[in-house]
Amino acid sequence: MAPALEAQVQQEEQSLPHNNNFYNTLNDATHRSKVTVIGSGNWGSVASKLIASNTLRLPSFHDEVRMWVYEETLPSGEKLTDVINRTNENVKYLPGIKLGQNVVADPDLENAGMEVKMEGPCMISTLISQQLGINCSVLMGANIANEIAVEKFSEATVGYRNNKEVAERWVQLFYTPYFIVTAAQDVEGVELCGTLKNVVAIAAGFVDGLEMGNNTKAAIMRLGLREMKAFSKLLFPSVKDSTFFESCGVADLITTCLGGRNRKVAEAYARNGGKRSFDELEAEMLQGQKLQGVSTASEVYEVLSHRGWLELFPLFSTVHEICSGLLPPSAIVEYSEKLPRSF
Ligand SMILES: NC(=O)C1=CN([C@@H]2O[C@H](COP(=O)(O)OP(=O)(O)OC[C@H]3O[C@@H](n4cnc5c(N)ncnc54)[C@H](O)[C@@H]3O)[C@@H](O)[C@H]2O)C=CC1
Ligand SMILES: O=C(CO)COP(=O)(O)O
């Protein structure tokens, strides 16, 4: 399943030489965690900013935060990495925001592969744990990156598997007075909330494009939340109901359906009657930023088809059928007759 979140953060323990000048001021510690942020788009850049403000003050972390950049050449002919390191700004994906002098952009990290299995989503946290042999938590929440970048108040959820201490370290790393992070012991539930809400946001965008109004949009959000919960619990019975009431659940769903990029591009798709493709609209409207909802809807559809669950999830399946041109955008409000009575 495509990543929806993306606290793409990797942590590695490092033994430091006691005589290393750089760390002399932190001379009582022999082990400090070094933080690398994998990804430097809109959210990856904000995550780096948040973390970098905390590593400077927390003695158990190295000051420096490395941020992996998928390298590209800007219209000026300069490499994005060079510009970030010179200006301390991600001029393409988060212009106007200083990341912190201790953020170092680096293009040389090994790429990771992602996989979808038809019988069920292969969770990114599981892949990372398996491939790197590390304990992986996830961070999701009502987090439009540009709003956090300018330090407007928001909340987020760290989903962790079984080690509360690990979760507390993630909370420490991200927590600021304007970014309140709480931990939930439900890694799959938190991750699936962050992923699936993108599909619902596409549906919300269709509703906006069709000018159906707020009641319809609220209905789509409620029905979407219901499918998010049912899908997550069918795949992972351990998923907790309470997770859907955390920031990663209903709050992320609301903000993404109101102010996210998936909503925005889906609105344009519906306004154009489905005549311009999502790829074309994404390129035109997002200037290099990427949508998750369309590909996630396709991956969810594969799982639903394979498991024989299409009829149980009319919203998810209708979103994919609209995105792939099988149905017109207006089908989003015509599917309700297909709704199952209960989950
Ligand atoms: N932007 C936001 O407000 C939020 C985003 N997220 C999630 O964060 C994740 C990353 O999104 P953003 O940071 O917004 O990215 P973005 O959409 O701003 O930028 C796309 C990123 O993908 C990179 N990229 C493009 N092609 C690539 C390739 N072939 N291989 C590797 N990298 C490539 C680009 O260099 C850029 O860093 C997504 O899953 C998104 O749903 C989560 C919360 C908030
Ligand atoms: O995930 C998000 C907010 O939490 C951002 O959503 P968009 O990718 O639709 O902008």
Q: Can you walk through the features of this model?
A:
It is a single chain. This protein has 343 residues and is α/β, with parallel strands linked by helices. The chain has 2 domains: 9-18 and 28-185, NAD(P)-binding Rossmann-like Domain (Rossmann fold); 188-338, N-(1-d-carboxylethyl)-l-norvaline Dehydrogenase, domain 2. The protein is 44% helix and 13% strand. The protein contains 12 helices and 9 strands. The chain has a 4-stranded mixed beta sheet with strand order 1-2-3-4. It has a 3-stranded mixed beta sheet with strand order 7-8-9, with helices on both faces. The protein has a two-stranded antiparallel ribbon with strand order 5-6. α6 (187-209) packs parallel to α8, α6 (187-209) packs across α12 and α9 packs across α10 (278-286). The chain is globular and about 60 Å long. The two termini are 23 Å apart. GO terms for molecular function: glycerol-3-phosphate dehydrogenase (NAD+) activity; NAD binding; protein homodimerization activity. Residues 186-333 form the Glycerol-3-phosphate dehydrogenase NAD-dependent C-terminal domain. One of its GO terms (biological process) is carbohydrate metabolic process.
